[in-house]
TrEMBL record:
Protein name: glycine oxidase
Domain FAD dependent oxidoreductase: 14-378
Keyword Cell inner membrane: no
Species of provenance: Sinomonas terricola
Key words, A-Z: Oxidoreductase, Thiamine biosynthesis
Signal peptide feature range: none
Uppermost EC category: oxidoreductase
Length: 410
């Protein structure tokens, strides 16, 4: 449908956020707190990757060699978490749970020692523990574990509670339960002026923020292709009987015969065990994945066998080629002088009215406060040089024409 024929949404807002996962809601919340009129568009808020996530705020324990740019962002977000969570009260869950890293056997101990060396080289606080010390902190750990260390900086929240808390504060009037089909461009093709919704209406906005995770692949009218891919994960939720509480008090991250597994205790007496990582294209829960998670979790905490398994979930993480988010403004690659020379960065102007915040892969919950801060800084006209490495157009090598044919309006 041509933009001129569309039903125009009655309200023009300051900010339209496409996607109500943790990232979109975090941005919407921060933007609303800055005094802006914000509307979030999502047919099913909180049902994407955020529904599955364990909610570990694992800047240190998830640090991977050669991901220094990402480490800067994850550490910044970990720093921002307490201030971000404070106005939400205790509803988002527990920010103070420490993390224990545990090795299943001698080879796992060596692998964890190598990881610890990298973490220590970056000045990340880790504390080696003897097996005896680890078991005095967590008596339910298996006597046979081969080694352990503690990370005091990594904590957790409950993403489902976080989603519910932000939705409640934004209020029902701020959420449009529809799919966004395309961006709407101003007639001169230089500015995004909102989104077209599934019912054909337009939501006009001063700024549009694309934060719909993997769904951004299908949103028409983006000025650059977003190289997102689904990385599926199976994750389990179990209930700890009263007689076994607390099963563990820290988040236990283990390596068992080279395979990572984690156990995240919730304040309500439940336990999250995760997570597989597969790129087989299937969003069904994998029986093999469930089996391996339970087997490896039991190797570290044998009493896991006595818990009630009440939920198995599979969702896709929004992955990117370098495991880092697509976050920031996007250059108009078709602008005069922006011709691609096969590798040099373009010198085109950023598209006005558009910010992208997707591709948060394994770290979306951890990175929510940083994404929110960065987006609101951009709304305020401030672009922090430290985060340029995450520009959503960093992979674009050829001009992307799809914007021209979608959602133009007079
Ligand atoms: C098993 C598993 C465990 C994880 N554990 C952790 C963890 O411990 N810590 C951590 O930090 N991260 C974790 N993650 C990663 C984290 O879940 C994601 O990075 C994060 O949820 C991404 O949030 P999001 O808001 O970008 O996307 P999503 O949560 O996927 O939300 C996207 C939303 O956009 C909506 N949408 C899609 N298309 C449209 C459209 N066209 N119009 C409107 N709305 C649309 C969807 O309905 C959805 O609600 C885990 C992920 C998985 C799968």
């Amino acid at each position: 449908m041509d933009g001129r024929d569309a039903v125009t949404h009655p309200a023009e807002v300051d900010v339209a956020v496409v996607g109500a996962g943790v990232v979109g809601l975090g941005i919407a919340w921060e933007a609303a707190c800055s005094g802006r009129r914000v509307v979030v568009v999502d047919p099913a808020p909180g049902t994407g990757a955020s529904f599955a996530a364990a909610g570990m705020l694992a800047a240190v324990s998830e640090y991977h060699y050669q991901e220094e740019d990402l480490l800067g962002l994850t550490l910044e977000s970990a720093r921002l978490w307490p201030g971000f969570a404070r106005p939400l009260g205790t509803e988002a869950g527990n920010l103070s749970t420490p993390t224990l890293c545990v090795a299943g056997d001698a080879a796992d101990r060596q692998a964890l020692a190598d990881l610890r060396a990298v973490q220590e080289a970056h000045g990340l606080g880790v504390r080696p523990l003897t097996v005896r010390e680890a078991r005095s902190l967590e008596p339910m750990l298996a006597p046979a574990i081969a080694g352990a260390f503690e990370i005091t900086a990594d904590h957790q929240v409950d993403p489902r509670r976080l989603v519910a808390a932000i939705l409640a504060r934004l209020g029902t009037g701020a959420v449009i339960r529809q799919r966004a089909e395309s961006l709407v461009w101003a007639g001169d093709g230089a500015r995004v002026v909102g989104v077209r919704l599934a019912d054909g209406s337009e939501l006009r906005a001063g700024e549009t923020i694309v934060a719909n995770g993997l769904g951004a692949r299908e949103l028409a009218g983006l000025p650059v292709p977003l190289p997102l891919r689904p990385v599926y994960g199976d994750i389990l939720r179990l209930r700890v009987p009263e007689s076994l509480r607390p099963l563990v008090t820290a988040t236990v991250r283990g390596l068992v015969r080279g395979k990572p597994v984690y156990l995240v205790p919730r304040a309500d007496g439940t336990l999250v065990i995760g997570a597989t990582q597969r790129e087989d294209g299937s969003d069904a829960v994998s029986a093999g994945g469930v089996y391996e998670l339970l087997r490896d979790a039991q190797a570290l905490v044998p009493a896991v066998a006595e818990l009630e398994l009440y939920e198995t979930t599979a969702r896709a993480r929004p992955g990117t080629p370098d495991n880092a988010p697509l976050l920031g403004r996007v250059a108009a690659r078709w602008a005069p002088g922006a011709a691609d020379d096969g590798g040099a960065p373009p010198h085109a102007q950023d598209v006005a009215g558009l910010i992208v915040a997707t591709g948060f892969f394994r770290h979306g919950v951890l990175l929510t406060p940083a994404a929110a801060r960065i987006c609101v800084d951009l709304l305020d006209g401030r672009a922090d040089e430290r985060w340029h490495a995450f520009r959503p157009d960093r992979f674009a090598r050829v001009p992307h024409e799809t914007h021209a044919s979608y959602g133009r309006t007079a």
